[in-house]
What we know:
about 180 residues
Amino acid sequence: MQRILLLLAGAAFLALPAAAAARPAVHAQPPSFLVVRNASTDGGVAGSPVVTIVVKGFVIGRIAQEGAVEIYHVPSSAASAPAPAQATGADVSRHTVTWRTLQGIEFTGSDFRFRAVRGVWRVVVYGSGVSLYAGGDGPVLQLHGSVEYPNNDGEYSLDGRPFVSLPSNAIKQKFEAK
């Protein structure tokens, strides 16, 4: 009986590495990360968005001065339900907004924090003193700095690269790891 168990254990020991090698390798693309520090654009809250991002993952941020954040949950086939978008601060108000057919929430005020996690989100940020951290997979990232003050409009880093000044003209690119 012991010989049979020893023989079966030896066969399993030899078969497991072969089975693992025969399994097709799945190379999932790593998530991308965006960091924006102290960003602003011309026109403040009424101007162009500083950051527009569509991401499956998370977006957290802070508006140190005056600003507005529109957060839309994009329906997906994800099994887990997203956490509701939130904002906290002493001077923050909440309004319902619509972008195309999606209902969203707009948070406006000064010196407040916001977050959208666990889901697919479209987040549009206006104002000055904007700091943001986002991670995940997404089709769209748009950044826009100041035309009048291009050297004093904040900076951003994508996927751990060195920080650079926000572009004076809006740039749009895929939000993915390179």
